[in-house]
Amino acid sequence: MTAAQIPGLDPAKIETVLGLFKAAGHTLVSPPILQPADIFLDLTGEDIRRRLFLTNGTDGVDLCLRPDFTIPVCRHHLARPDADLPASYCYSGPVFRQRPDGLGEIPQLGAESLGRTDIAKADADLLALSAKALAAFGLDNTEIRIGDETLFAAVLEKLELPSVWRRRLRDLFGETDKLSSAIGRMAGGSSSDDDSRDVRLGFLSALEGADPAAAHSIVEDLLSIAGISAVGGRTPSEIADRFLEQAALASGARGHDTAAETLKAYLALKADGASAPDAIRAFAAQHGLDLAAPLAAFEQRLEALKAKGIALSQLSFAADFGRRLDYYSGFVFEIHAPEGGIEGALVGGGRYDKLVTLLGAETDVPAIGFSMWLDRIAAAITPGLGG
């Protein structure tokens, strides 16, 4: 579906918003719709992986219709012979994700900024640009939600937890139900899928403490006997790694009550942008945690947002808020329609400082971007169209 085909959305406003992006220094690009599937299977997270439209090239390579623009834009940048940094891009076009109802073709606009080292100002510039773009569509009284995985990671690092548990909990950040279930199990509770896990407890017990090379061989042999070469895009070696992690999690589960209570207290924090630093500072003092460095970065970002004309009291901070894409690594934000009524965010974005390196860059590239969901924006502009 093109922008011109979206009921209730004036195509001229698309051009106006693209003009805003270009004026802010973003070059318009149009990455290919067909993309290598393995990249998205590895980097996007379970929510996107299960909704990919998959196909094969004539050479047998697995391909997919692009489910987002961030990875294709980063690949476009890396493919350029003159790929200097910093670099900024914008785009307009469809992404493709399977949906239980409605079309899987979703029109989007967005902007990406790669390589800026003035992190706080870059964060503020991109969030403010997305809010300005919504205003160009006629949506002013929106709700801005912010989160920060860096703070959650800092809390995790201060707790006495096995490294495998710290890694697992960080992987689940942004998936509130799964994260809460894992924390409950870590503290000695049970979860709803304990019965299903009993089926494989014997196998995990056999792997526990085993030499990693031997464990890999066991899993790969079993898969070979079953005639399985890959599951969900994962190789036998990756599946073996997953079983080893599950064995380590099972052996290290329970008995971490204090850490679990601390995490629950942190994840329950909610405040407006003006009050959030004091709330985080009070939590850190109560639990004896040194969060000075990530909190300083958090406050610097808030100051940069205020300098862009964004009222901190209008921001909503939730400590448990993260976005369900594996490549996000720090600051995240969403903008929602005023007074609810539209399911899902109008804008979703955040920082992905490790992604460009994972895609092949020789050095770390700080990066931040956002996407705008045009079907939801159209519904917010014209009530009654649905969300």
Describe the structure.
Helix content is 46%, strand content 16%. By secondary structure, it is of the alpha+beta class. Among the domains are: 1-140 and 356-387, BirA Bifunctional Protein, domain 2, CATH 3.30.930.10; 162-256, no CATH class. Strands 1-5-6-12-11-10-7-9-8 form a 9-stranded mixed beta sheet, sandwiched between helices. α5 (119-136) crosses α14, α8 runs antiparallel to α12 and α9 (194-207) crosses α11. It is globular. Residues 191-201 have low confidence and may be disordered.
**Average of pLDDT:** 86
DSSP summary: helix tally: 16
Give the structural class: alpha+beta
How many strand elements? 12
> What is the CATH domain class of the domain at 1-140 and 356-387?
Alpha Beta
Given as residue ranges, the uncertain stretches (5+ residues, pLDDT < 50) are: 191-201
Beta-strand percentage range: 15-25%
CATH structural architecture of the domain at 1-140 and 356-387: 2-Layer Sandwich
Q: Estimate the global geometry from the Cα principal axes.
A: globular
CATH topology of the domain at 1-140 and 356-387: BirA Bifunctional Protein, domain 2
Provide the spatial order of strands within the biggest beta sheet. Answer: 1-5-6-12-11-10-7-9-8
N-to-C SSE string, H for helix and E for strand: HEEHHEEHEEHEHHHHHHHEHHEEEHEH
CA-based gyration radius: 22 Å
Work out the helicity level: 40-55%
The biggest beta sheet is recorded as:
9 strands, mixed
What is the CA-CA span between the terminal residues? 15 Å
